Structures are given as structure tokens and as C-alpha cells.
Amino acid sequence: MALEILNWKTFGHSEILRYIKKSVEQDRLSHAYLFTGPDRVGKTTVAIDLACLINAEHKTTKSGNVVVDLKNDRQAIRIRKGFHSDVKIINNETPCSVDGTETKSRVNISIEHIQDIKKEASLKPFEGEAKVFIIEGAQNMTLEASNALLKILEEPYDRVFFILTTSSTAHLPETIISRCQVLSLRSVKKSEISEKLSNIYGLDHSESDNLSSLSRGRPGWAVSAVKDATMVDSLSQLVNRISDIMSGSLEERFVYARKLSNQFRTNRDEVYAELDGWIDWFREIAISKNGLKQHLFFRQKESNYLEITEKLSQRQIVKAINLLFEIRGNLKNNAIPRLALEVLMVELPFIDKN
Description:
The protein has 354 residues and is α/β, with parallel strands linked by helices. The protein folds into three domains: 3-184, P-loop containing nucleotide triphosphate hydrolases (Rossmann fold), CATH 3.40.50.300; 189-228; 229-347, Zinc Finger, Delta Prime, domain 3 (Up-down Bundle), CATH 1.20.272. It is built from 15 helices and ten strands. It has helices at 14-25, 43-55, 74-81, 111-121, 143-154, 174-178, 190-201, 205-214, 219-227, 230-246, 250-266, 268-289, 302-309, 314-332, 337-347; strands at residues 3-6, 32-36, 59-60, 66-69, 87-90, 96-98, 101-103, 131-135, 160-166, 181-184. A five-stranded parallel β-sheet has the order 5-8-9-2-10, sandwiched between helices. It has a three-stranded mixed β-sheet with strand order 1-4-3, with helices on one face. A hairpin with a 5-residue loop joins strand 3 (59-60) and strand 4 (66-69). Helix 7 crosses helix 8 (205-214) and helix 12 (268-289) packs antiparallel against helix 14 (314-332). The longest helix has 22 residues, at 268-289.
């Protein structure tokens, strides 16, 4: 069967799309996929595209070819709008039923989430060809949730697909990984993101080039930034906040650590994103120190970076980056948040304001 797929929402991941297309042509779709890659690189977008492909009408042309339109098909439209009864996206913000009461975890994907999935998976598709469950941030599943999902994956239901996404497989049980078809999404070339932003959203070259640089190879971030101008402002505020903390007193650092540890209780992803911002900040300093300004993400901050490079040694920069990765990993492994973050603040180098 010659298959033509129109209007993928995904861009920059042509190898992944070719693999999915070939799997459909050969009728060899897996019942479970695991998409890995950096945050906002496009994992959920690919997952939704795949859900649309599974449920959209496959029209046969006079020449015998099969065409699937992932934009204009009725099923695809309902899936993209979040109205489709057979396609669900589950994450730590998704309400679940606990003792008959709907509640939100906001931290983990709980066993109650998986129990809700199991109930729905046992029912036949209502309006589409198959049921599709997209589990975003699968690394946030509790151990009980992982074990419950494993049992489902070991005895899959007919016409039910699972698509898991994660930024890291390090915190997923090997038993879950082994029962999924793993597809890794890598960072997308800056030029490709810039071109898409210009073609799809009509941005001028300067604006698309700036956003593609700030995106760090993540199409999802770039597209979100087009729709929400405050994202660039938030990034600028993060850079300024880090610079202030680096030149602040130990007391100011402890106040900051306490705020982050409190935030960690309600939204861990935001704290991880903050720590990623710190890693990127030190990367920018390292790049500036080595005279490679063309590789800066946030080129508007170049003059600020140059001032800081004179006050930090290469060894201090490398040590700080390694420390940040270590603390981030410790938090993932259930370290005490306040203690871990205070240690970070003590061990990071101080910059003289003068």
C-alpha cells in the first residue's frame, strides 16, 4: 500500500515520521510507544499526530493509493481540539478519581490515574478506530502507577494504544521501557525552526531567528513563544534573577532556596525548569568566555555575560554545571528539597558586584 500522509503538525523530526509512516504501511504499529527527548522538543505533538493517524479516515484514491489528512479529517479535528472521546492525554495535572472524589495530584501520576485508564481501556472505542492514551511526563508516575501500567502493557487490549513521553528514561522502570517501542526525538536545527516560524506564522527573519535561537532546538518552545510573548520576557527575568543571586549574599541565596523548595511541593517541573535555566546560564558564560558569541542562545545578554566572564574561571564554570546536574538528579531521587537547594546555593561561586 502506498500511503500519503498530509498535514503533519510535527516538524523537524522527519526520521521519526518516516518510521511511523512505514509502520502504518506495513500494518506493524506497536501497541505502546515511548517518545523521549528534551522538554518541548515535540514529543506530545508527535503523539497527537500519531493518534490522529490511527483514527483518521484512510481514503483510497482511484490510483489505489491511500491518503490520510491529519488536519482536515473530522476525527483529527476533534482529537486536536481535545473533544475526541477515545483519545486522552494524561499528566500530573489530570484529575483522577480517589474514593469517588475527583482530585488533582499536581506532583505525580498516581495509581488512580492508571486505574481510570484501565476502566476506559476495557471499553470499545466510541467514535474512532481505536483508543489512544497519551501519558505525558511518564517519569512522574509513582512506583504503584508504573506497576499498574506494566500489567496493562503485558496484556494489551484490542484496539488500544499507549504513547508515553518522557524527558529522561533514567526514572522509568526498565520493565516499562522494554514493553514500548522507544523513539528518541533530538534537538532540531535552528535554521529549520526559523524557516517554519517564518512560513507558518509570518514572522520576519529577525524575529524568527531570535526565537529559534532562544528555543535551543525545541520547536514546541518556539511555537509557544510565538503565541505567548511573555515567554521571552520570563526567560529574560530568569537570566536577571540568576545574575542577582550570583552576586547576592548567602542570606539572599537561602531565601531563594526556600522559595524553590516550597514551589517544589506543588510544581516540581517548574523547579526543574529553573535549574535547567541555571545550567543554560553557565553554558552561556562558558561560551562567552571562549569568544564563541555566535553560539549564544540569549544574544541580547551578551554584554552582561562578558562582564561576568572576567569574574569566573573556566574551572568554576565547569564545577557549577556539574553541581547543578548533580542536585537536579538528587531531587529526582527524592532528596530533601530545601537541604539540596541550600547546598547548591552554598557551593555555587559568588560574584563580586563591583
